[in-house]
Design goal:
Helix 2 crosses helix 3 and helix 9 crosses helix 11. The strands form four sheets. Strands 1, 2, 3, 4, 7, 8, 9, 10, 11 and 12 form a ten-stranded mixed beta sheet that branches. The protein has two domains: 278 residues, LarA, N-terminal domain (Rossmann fold, 3-Layer(aba) Sandwich); 84 residues, Alpha-Beta Plaits. By secondary structure, the protein is of the alpha/beta class.
């Protein structure tokens, strides 16, 4: 894998384009990439590029949780027409990559275009001496075997990091159960985001091309409400792109932990961001349903604040009417002992031990029934109103 130049890494340009229909995406993508100087500025002809969509789970495209197959088609067709060799893949949060790409509709598109599914099951150790928090990762073979990565994130909200975006999308470059392990080891939003920052610097996609035609608000990244956003965002800088996403959601970028980490460690400078194409200010969605609370999503980091954490910090809550008692929430809980479990066989929904819960929200993210939401205790809601 060949990394981009330092100039590309520090490029703060973000292309913002209106696009309300997926059938118009390819032409819009060409316009947008040309605003950045064309594909030749980011990859040499004939290079092997792996496309990394957001495949949280194998959801149907109308659910709005994954990169839409028609958006994937538009990007892939454009790259193929320019002579690039392509593969694609992701490591979903639950299940096998092949099952996820098939259920999401990506497999049918990829087969039509003759694009192979890369290996996102096997992994190899990659050293990263410049890491802030981590000096090595186990990265999917499919990433390491390509010359370059182009990431295709989705415009949506997230329980832990508030928005998914370009940086969070790269978490899927780590295969299998190690993702749950990171949640357990790095159980506060700051440390978890510093890990994501290290991973983003290690992978260093040449471009991030965001599917914002259909977005998700509310209880994201999987069980929120689909919203017609009608936008495409393109940038070589994932932090500049995520900054613009936060602004479009009417969310203070300082509340996004990955952006706080990127700013702290000089990975981007908000004042240098240049938006090309549409006016960002004119497209801000003031009513976008996103977590704007000043309260940390994972609670205080100091150990003596544990009790206070359970009175103030947001927490996952099960709606018993929607719960099918499938047990996936129990299965994906990364802590030991589990923070959630059945108390009496499967006669009733699982119950939480909030003192054990680290607020990783894996249960909420992976629930197939839209039965788990994130709620803030009443004292936390009062505290947040005072601090608005």
């Amino acid at each position: 894998m060949n990394h981009p130049s330092s100039a590309q890494r520090r490029d703060h340009r973000v292309v913002l384009l209106k696009c309300s229909q997926y059938e118009n995406a390819q032409q819009k993508l060409l316009e947008g990439i040309n605003l950045l100087g064309g594909l030749q500025n980011f990859a040499a002809k004939g290079e092997h590029i792996v496309l990394k969509p957001n495949l949280l789970l194998g959801d149907k495209p109308e659910r709005g949780s994954t990169t839409h197959p028609e958006f994937f088609r538009a990007v892939a067709a454009l790259l193929k027409s320019e002579g690039y060799h392509l593969s694609y893949g992701d490591s979903p949060g639950f299940g096998a990559p092949h099952s996820a790409v098939k259920a999401s509709g990506l497999l049918a598109v990829a087969d039509t275009l003759g694009i192979a599914l890369a290996d996102f099951v096997g992994e190899q150790e990659v050293l990263y001496p410049d890491g802030i928090l981590l000096k090595q990762f186990l990265v999917a073979n499919g990433i390491m075997e390509a010359d370059a990565v182009i990431s295709l994130p989705k415009f949506k909200t997230h329980g832990l990091t508030r928005l998914t975006g370009a940086v969070k999308n790269l978490f899927g470059c780590l295969p299998g159960v190690q993702k749950a392990g990171f949640h357990a080891r790095l159980s506060d939003e700051t440390r978890f985001s510093e890990m994501l920052l290290d991973l983003a610097e290690l992978i260093s996609p040449r471009l991030h091309i965001m599917d914002g035609i259909l977005g998700m608000e509310g209880n994201g990244p999987r069980n929120g409400t689909v919203r017609q956003v009608g936008l495409i965002l393109i940038s070589a800088n994932p932090h500049a792109l995520d900054h613009c996403v936060a602004k479009l959601m009417n969310l203070d970028p300082e509340l996004v932990p990955t952006l706080r980490a990127a700013k702290k460690y000089d990975r981007y400078q908000p004042d240098l961001i240049e938006v090309l194409g549409e006016s960002l200010e004119a497209l801000v969605m003031t009513d976008y349903d996103v977590n704007r609370s000043r309260i940390s999503t994972t609670g205080p980091e100091r150990f003596y604040m544990d009790l206070f954490k359970n009175w103030v910090t947001p927490r996952p809550v099960i709606d018993p009417e929607n719960c099918s008692k499938c047990g996936r929430c129990v299965q994906v809980c990364p802590v030991a002992p589990k923070a959630i479990g059945f108390q009496d066989g499967r006669k009733e929904p699982p119950q939480y031990n909030y003192h054990q819960c680290i607020r990783c929200y894996c249960c909420q993210e992976m629930c197939p029934d839209e039965a788990i939401s994130i709620e803030t205790p009443i004292i936390g809601r009062i505290f947040n109103k005072i601090n608005l």
